[in-house]
Amino acid sequence: MKKLLLISLLSVGLFSCSSDDDNATPASLNGKWAMEKSYIIFNNEIINDQTEIHVHNCSSSKDYIQFNENTTTGLEREYYESCNSYDDDFTYTVNGNNVMMNFDEYEWDATIYEITNEVLKLQDNTASGFGRIFEYKKIN
């Protein structure tokens, strides 16, 4: 009877574990992220009625931020109504969930509020109390 109980417990243990969880790839900043919307936050709480949908000025291209793979460089591209673009190169460092982006004329200190393989939310750390979370969607 003890052997039967032991075999049952071992069977449950072996078949209830999944190696899929061990092989999950963590989401990465690398790639292009199109600006989708932003949220106003107060004391780290999103104020739901203050969500702002980002309007892309060019109908054929979206504004985006790009983190280059295997480097610490990136690009922010904004399009005008004429679909001409303005590029702003930056370097960045990541320390835990903190991302410091250094542009030519300013720095942007942000916290990764959420990241998946499809969505990136960066919380602006430049203001205390009130703030903003920017939501991006992964593009190819």
Helix content: 10-25%
- Kindly report the average pLDDT value: 80
Number of strands: 10
How far apart are the first and last residues' alpha carbons, in Å?
Answer: 59 Å
Total helices: the number is 1
Provide the β-strand percentage band. over 45%
Shape: globular
List the helices and strands and how they pair.
Blueprint: H1 2-16, E1 31-42, E2 45-46, E3 52-53, E4 64-67, E5 73-79, E6 85-95, E7 98-103, E8 107-115, E9 119-124, E10 130-139
Antiparallel strand pairs: 1-2, 1-3, 1-4, 1-10, 4-5, 5-6, 6-7, 7-8, 8-9, 9-10
Account of the protein in words:
There is one protein chain. Helix content is 11%, strand content 49%. It has one helix at 2-16, and strands spanning 31-42, 45-46, 52-53, 64-67, 73-79, 85-95, 98-103, 107-115, 119-124, 130-139. The longest helix is centred in the N-terminal third of the chain and has 15 residues, at 2-16.
Characteristics:
140 residues, mainly beta, 8-stranded antiparallel beta barrel, 1 helix, 11% helix, 49% strand, globular
Give a nutshell description of this structure.
Helices cover 11% and strands 49% of the residues. It is mainly beta and 140 residues long.
